[in-house]
Amino acid sequence: MAFTGKATYTAGVTLPEIAEDVSDIVGIISPAETSLLDAIGDPLREARSTYHEWLEDSLIPNKDTISDSTITDPDGETSFDVANGSRFRVGDQIQGFESEELMLVTGVSNNTLTVVRGYAGTTAENISNEQVIFILGNAALEGDDKPAARFTNRIRCGNYTQIFTAGVEVSGTNIASSHLGISDEMDYQKSERLRELIRDLENTVINGGQPTANAQGSATVRRSMKGIIQSIDTNVFRPGDSGFPTGTGLDEAKINYVLRQIWENSNGNVDLIVVGGYQKRKINSFLTASRSFGPSDKSYTDMVSVYESDFGVCRIITSRWVPQDAVLLLDSSRVSVLPLAGRSFHFKPLASSGDYECGQLIGEYTLEFKNEAAHGIIRDLAVA
């Protein structure tokens, strides 16, 4: 070739003698990580129906509340009403919340208790309407007949499966052509759509809801699963609730309060705290004031990955899909994301009616969320 004297920087990419310099790696910036699904792990079984069910049970409660606005002698009243008289038996020792007085139940008539005040040498204290009463245990008489049998009823809970799908279509020319960064356009498209579907699965597991009518689905109603946030009814805490620590900013007092409430009212073992980016930074700040660094330290660390409290050791994970004003506190042993049998994510080739190849990625999943009272959520936290 004759000498031209041109410099490469004046040639651009239009001259045939200058080859394109394009990396063989396709960079993807869209968020696709699934922190919660990774933390929960793969399920041990599959769902066998579009409505997946499980059984839940509970022990007979050992506490109740006084439900009597007619108490006139708070430290001498020997008969008062409670919310659930069936929880009590003659011979029960009971004790009011934050009280040192013991009482002995001598009679139960519907929801009315008759008691001995100041039992076992304790001093009678004031009782009040809506006060919590703890049942310590029953003292049976020697040689007495067996007490009446008591039991709880198991309940069936369930959730519907939801179909996640995406179409893939690539022309014959595209398949035959060489590409930068990929070896097979069809495989690349399948991989990208699968990432999107798994991302959407985690988002739905956290935030999804069911239609209020025809939740089983129909030709016009799309079947969808109920997510974690929609499933928690018992332990929902917001700033301003009675007893909840004051302020709208997340702090250690609020985390500890919710952990204690779950611990006191269930045998749930919260081991997972799931937050968005803003609340994760608030959790990190719990220790900021107590961190110290020496002159030789070259890196600054401000991250909390595990929170240890008297009520459990919790991993802290950040999920983009948790609402920024929320904190989820979960017992991960009671949470599973199950595919319908034979319907985990897969590619289904479809017949082509032209010069292209096509198919769809399909997956059908549901959330198994056992014992919702073993989990908790804080909402309406400050986000700025």
Give a brief rundown of this model.
This protein has 384 residues and is α+β, with helices and mostly antiparallel strands. The chain contains 7 helices and 18 strands.
Fraction in helix: 10-25%
Characterize the main sheet: 6 strands, antiparallel
Main β-sheet, spatial strand arrangement:
2-7-4-5-6-3
**Classification by helices and strands:** alpha+beta
- Kindly state the number of beta strands: 18
Kindly report how far apart the N and C termini lie.
66 Å
H/E element order: HHEEEEEEEEEHHHEHEHEEEEEEE
Overview of this protein structure:
The protein is of the alpha+beta class. The protein folds into 2 domains: 35-56 and 156-288 and 302-378, Alpha-Beta Complex (phage-related protein like fold), CATH 3.90.1690; 63-138, M1 Pyruvate Kinase, Domain 3 (Beta Barrel). The chain has 7 helices and 18 strands. The protein has helices spanning 8-11, 35-40, 172-176, 185-207, 228-231, 252-265, 277-284, and strands at residues 51-56, 63-65, 79-81, 92-96, 102-109, 112-119, 132-138, 155-160, 162-171, 236-237, 272-275, 306-309, 312-318, 327-330, 335-339, 346-350, 356-369, 376-378. A 6-stranded antiparallel beta sheet has the order 2-7-4-5-6-3, with no helix packed on it. It has a 6-stranded mixed beta sheet with strand order 10-18-14-11-13-12. A hairpin with a 5-residue loop joins strand 16 and strand 17.
